[in-house]
Structures are given as C-alpha cells and as structure tokens.
C-alpha cells in the first residue's frame, strides 16, 4: 500500500484493537506509522522487512 493508506487503515484498526500488525513497503510508511502511534500514546516497532507493530502502551485520554 502507498501512503497514506497504511496509516489510515492503522488508525481505523486502532479503534477496536490493543495491537495491530501492518505490512507496507512505501518508504514513508514507517515515519507515518510511528507518528500515528506516538500521537495516540501507542508503542511502535519495526518487525522486519516492511512489517510494523503498533501496540497500546497506556490508557488513552478521550479525544474531544
């Protein structure tokens, strides 16, 4: 998937999950996914070639 699709799909999946795995080969994806995770207080990890993990790391504050 080309960006912004990996980040958009990750954001949607984050609504109902405690952890997600994303596979994306777009060179921009790691930076966008890391920023998304940071914005929501989630942990971000690179798992290998084009594989990324986002995991809930703390209780999130409600969004207004």
Describe this structure in words.
The chain has a 3-stranded antiparallel beta sheet with strand order 1-3-2, with helices on one face. The longest helix has 12 residues, at 29-40. The chain has one domain (5-56). With 64 residues, it is α+β, with helices and mostly antiparallel strands. The protein is built from 2 helices and 3 strands; from the N terminus they run αβαββ. It is 34% helix and 28% strand.
**Spatial strand sequence of the major β-sheet:** 1-3-2
Number of helices in the DSSP assignment: 2
Provide the low-confidence segments as ranges.
none
The Cα radius of gyration reads: 11 Å
Strand content: 25-35%
From the spread of the alpha carbons, the general shape counts as: globular
Total E-strand runs: 3
Helix % is 25-40%
Count of the separate structural domains: 1
- What average pLDDT do the residues reach? 89
Throw out a few tags for this protein.
3 strands; alpha+beta; 2 helices; globular; about 35% helix; 3-stranded antiparallel β-sheet; about 60 residues
Q: What is shown here, in short?
A:
34% of the residues lie in helices and 28% in strands. With 64 residues, it is of the alpha+beta class.
Q: Which secondary structure elements does this structure contain, and how are they paired or packed?
A:
Blueprint: H1 5-14, E1 19-23, H2 29-40, E2 42-48, E3 51-56
Antiparallel strand pairs: 1-3, 2-3
Helix pairs in contact: 1-2
């Amino acid at each position: 998937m080309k960006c912004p699709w990996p980040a958009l799909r990750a954001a949607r999946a984050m609504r109902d999950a405690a952890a997600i795995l994303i596979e994306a080969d777009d060179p921009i994806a790691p930076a966008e996914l890391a920023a998304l995770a940071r914005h929501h207080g989630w942990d971000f990890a690179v798992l290998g070639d084009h594989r990324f993990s986002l995991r809930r790391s703390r209780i999130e504050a409600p969004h207004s």
